[in-house]
Amino acid sequence: MINSKQNQQFLVEDLIREKLRSGQIDKVLEIYEKSYRVCLFNDLIEVDARDALKRNIIILMVATSRGLLDEEKTCNSLRITCSLYLEKLNKVEKFINIYELGKEYLIEIDKILRKNNYSCKNFVVRKVMTYIKENLQEDLSLDLLSKQVHLSKNYLSTLFVEATGEKITSYINNQRLKKSKELLKEGDYSLAYVSDLCGFKNQSYFSMVFKERERISPSIYRKLNKR
User: Which residue intervals define the domain HTH araC/xylS-type in the entry (predicted)?
Assistant: First the structure.
């Protein structure tokens, strides 16, 4: 079971990743300082403070590098950098050195992302588009999609519109219609089956949306385009 301390660290990791994706290194370091310099958890003031801090920064390093993997060139650089800093971290003992190494790591990650023209917008949008296409049958709410990329719903909506020129809901409907047309052309599936497979609420709603967009009913479309 995830306790409150673990949940707090997850939130910090998500926020740091979000700011790194957006190129806001100042915000990243601000969050890091508030969360780790004073100590993220209360048990850091105990005897095992050093080991607890080191453990949490190791988790942050790994979670950050994995959460930012995208294109191959960027992936390799992130993995190598993470491995190098994990080795360095294992060799330091002083509290302040552990803290400073974590800070240095985040600065280095920011440099890698900038050098490789890493785009938060492109990364997030591609990931969301792929998830939508592979899970059309699901209830693709904005809440669900935002959790897939660890961003707030408002921020994800803004990125998506900036990158594609359309809202996420519009993109989802377009993809569902696209898949429904493929199914109608390829086989004799019932409209109820097509509706369910493409994620529409029910057959009636599917027919209504289809007719609004295509100006003809699904049944007529199938007759005119059957392969």
Answer: 126-224
Place of tokens 């199914």: 183
198 close to 176: Cβ distance less than 8 angstroms? yes
Beta strands in 9-148, from DSSP E residues, in sequence order: none
What does the pLDDT look like over 110-151, one tens digit per residue? Answer: 888 777 655 555 677 888 988 999 999 888 999 999 888 877
How far, in Å, CA of 120 to CA of 68, rounded? Answer: 9
Instruction: Identify the three-state secondary structure at position 190.
Output: coil
From first CA to last CA, the distance across the chain in angstroms is: 53
Chain mean position to CA 62: 16
pTM of the complete model beyond 0.70: no
Amino acid at the residue 73? K
Residues of the chain above pLDDT 70, percent: 84
Reported residue count of the chain is 227
Report DSSP letters for 126-175, one per residue. HHHHHHHHHTTTS---HHHHHHHTT--HHHHHHHHHHHHSS-HHHHHHHH
